[in-house]
Amino acid sequence: MTFSQKVKSEILRSAKGLKGCCAASFLTAVIKSVGSISIDNRNFAFTVESDNRELPEVCQKLCVTQLGVDAQITDARFTSSKQTSYTCRFDASLGGKLHLTAADSDGSFTLCDAASLVPSKPCCARAFMQGLFVACGSVIIPLTDSDIGENRLHSKYHLELRFTDPDFLQAVSAAYAPMELKYTPRKNHGVLYLKDSEKIADFLVYVNAMSAKLQLENVIIGRSVRNRANRQRNCISANIDKSVLASERQTEAIERLKLNGMYEGLPDSLKQIADLRQKYPEATLDEIADMSGISKSGANHRFAKLIELSHK
Ligand SMILES: [Zn+2]
Questions:
Q1: Which residue, 58, 91, 120, 235, could crosslink 70 as a Cys pair with Cβ 3.0–4.6 Å?
Q2: What is the pLDDT of residues 89-104, one digit of tens each?
């Protein structure tokens, strides 16, 4: 099961318990996102189809128990992808109950404006977002090493909701402005997305996917520990590079002093440290200082003096 499927399954378990206004909001979001419309006796009839049986099942249960509207589940087999898909067919009266459709004075029906569908009550807004995510959402997180085999290894955090109706996308984006969902167009549809791991964690809390949120937090912590270890390793190797460079510069200076006959005239303190450097080219400044019985800054000062003299 992918992380996305885990999140959806967790949301669906929680959505089963939705009541009244919230159940209606959940159904509205699902039907508006992935539902299809047909004409039934001059009215609109809606169906929801999914390869995940849980989604139409939860929709059917909420529709029947919370709204008192009949709904039937039918199995249909796709020959092309050999995948079973499950359909929930709702009674035509559901459109009016969810305000998806409105009756005109002449008895015909029209579809309602997308913006009017997004609820403003906090309890319903949450149920609506749960419906949106299970219907048109997905999420990927970087999986840790032990998760390889379960899924492809991603290095990025990404959560998205896909919309085919641009007006509906606009309405959702405006209603959930505090979530700071970003927009990007794609072929044939628009996408609202989050890339920040903390914002994705907040989203999972909002839609009541608490165990998915814990899994995400473990990944975030694991990665920050690994990043810190990498940074430390890089830092140590940078210091080693610096000390190798310094040793090379000192050795060159000593060789120059010997070539131009200046070495013999040097004070003993400088000759001693020069000899140590030639004998131990890989020793650090600390180690040379220890061997000379002087401080690190003293050793540094003497090497600087050698380099300065070698340029005369
Ligand atoms: Zn509500």
A1: 91
A2: 998 888 888 888 887 7
